[in-house]
C-alpha cells in the first residue's frame, strides 16, 4: 500500500514537473510546480521526514510559490503565450539534461557504501520534530545562525535591488 | 524502507534532469528560476532518501538549509527581475543584452 502510494507520488511529481517546464502560460506552470511541491511533501512523509514535509508545504508551496505568482501577476506578461515556449536551442538543452540525468542515474547504481538496507529498528522517530530541533540547536547551531544571516542579507539585498530610484539619484 | 534507495535516487535524477532542461530551454527569467526550484527539490529528495537510508538526521538538516538558501535565492532573483522589468518591460532573457541603461 505504501509502496503503491510512493509510486503514485513519484509518477505524479515527474508528470507535474514535465508539465511545469513545458506550459506556455507562466501561471499554469506555477500551478504545476505547486502540484510538484505537494507531491514531494508526500514523498517526504513516506520517507519519515515529517518536519521536512511540513517545511516543504509551508515554505515552498506557501511562501516561495506565492512570491513567484505575485511577481508573475505584477509583471503582467501578456505576450508570453504568443512566442515560442522554448528557445531555438532546446534540443541542445534536452541533450544536456538527458546527459546529466543519465550520469546521475548511473551513479545511483554504483553504491559505494552499503549500509544495512533494512535500517536498525533502534532508529526510532528520527524525522520527528524533537530530534530535528535538537540537531538544529545542538551540533548545527552555527549553520542555523548562518542561514538566518543569509536570509537577512537576502531581505536587505531585495529591498535595495527592487527599490524605486528617486529622481535625485 | 518502503522502496529501495535506488528508486528514490533515480526519481531525484529524473526530476533534476527536468529542471536542467527547463532552465536551459525556457526563455523567461521567472520560469528559469522556477526550474531552479525543481532542481533544488530533486536534491532535497535525494538528501531525504539518504537520510532515511543511513538513518542519519543530517540529511534532513542539510535539506532544511537548502530550503533556506532557496528562499534567499528566490528573494534576490525576483528582486532582480522586478528591477530589470522597471527598465524594460517583459521577462525575456534574450532582451537583456545591455550592460547598462
What distinguishing features does this structure have?
heterodimer; A: 169 residues; mainly alpha; 6 helices; B: 101 residues; 75% helix
Quick synopsis:
The complex is a heterodimer of chains A (169) and B (101). With 169 residues, chain A is mainly alpha-helical.
Topology at a glance:
The complex is a heterodimer of chains A (169) and B (101).
Chain A: H1 2-22, H2 26-46, H3 50-75, H4 90-109, H5 129-137, H6 141-162
Chain B: H1 5-25, H2 29-53, H3 58-87
Tell me what the structure shows.
- The complex is a heterodimer of chains A (about 170) and B (about 100).
- In chain A, about 70% of the residues lie in helices and about 0% in strands.
- Chain A contains six helices and no strands.
- Chain A has helices spanning about 1-20, 25-45, 50-75, 90-110, 130-135, 140-160.
- In chain B, helix 1 (about 5-25) runs antiparallel to helix 2 (about 30-55) and helix 2 runs antiparallel to helix 3.
- The longest helix of chain B is centred in the last third of the chain and has 30 residues, at about 60-85.
- The mean pLDDT of chain B is about 85.
- The chains are: A mainly alpha (about 170), B mainly alpha (about 100).
- At the A-B interface, helix 1, helix 2, helix 3, helix 4 and helix 5 of A face helix 1, helix 2 and helix 3 of B.
Amino acid at each position: 500500500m505504501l509502496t503503491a502510494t510512493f509510486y503514485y507520488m513519484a509518477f505524479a511529481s515527474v508528470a507535474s514537473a514535465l508539465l511545469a517546464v513545458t506550459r506556455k502560460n507562466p501561471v499554469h506552470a506555477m500551478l504545476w510546480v505547486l502540484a510538484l511541491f505537494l507531491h514531494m511533501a508526500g514523498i517526504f512523509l513516506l520517507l519519515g521526514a515529517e518536519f521536512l514535509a511540513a517545511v516543504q508545504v509551508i515554505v515552498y508551496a506557501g511562501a516561495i510559490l506565492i512570491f513567484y505568482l505575485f511577481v508573475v501577476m505584477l509583471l503582467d506578461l501578456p505576450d508570453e503565450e504568443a512566442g515560442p515556449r522554448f528557445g531555438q536551442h532546446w534540443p541542445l538543452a534536452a541533450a544536456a539534461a538527458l546527459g546529466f540525468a543519465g550520469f546521475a542515474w548511473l551513479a545511483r547504481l554504483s553504491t559505494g557504501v552499503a549500509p544495512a538496507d533494512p535500517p536498525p529498528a533502534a532508529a526510532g522517530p528520527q524525522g520527528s520534530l524533537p530530534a530535528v530541533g535538537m540537531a538544529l540547536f545542538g551540533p548545527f547551531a552555527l549553520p542555523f545562525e548562518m542561514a538566518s544571516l543569509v536570509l537577512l542579507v537576502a531581505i536587505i539585498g531585495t529591498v535595495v535591488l527592487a527599490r524605486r530610484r528617486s529622481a535625485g539619484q | 524502507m518502503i522502496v529501495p534507495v535506488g528508486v528514490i535516487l533515480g526519481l531525484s535524477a529524473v526530476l533534476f534532469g527536468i529542471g536542467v532542461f527547463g532552465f536551459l530551454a525556457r526563455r523567461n527569467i521567472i520560469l528559469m528560476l522556477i526550474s531552479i526550484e525543481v532542481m533544488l527539490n530533486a536534491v532535497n529528495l535525494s538528501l531525504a532518501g539518504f537520510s532515511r537510508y543511513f538513518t542519519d538526521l543530517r540529511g534532513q538538516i542539510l535539506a532544511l538549509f537548502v530550503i533556506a538558501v532557496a528562499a534567499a535565492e528566490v528573494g534576490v532573483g525576483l528582486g532582480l527581475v522586478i528591477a530589470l522589468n522597471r527598465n524594460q518591460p517583459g521577462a525575456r532573457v534574450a532582451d537583456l543584452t545591455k550592460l547598462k541603461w
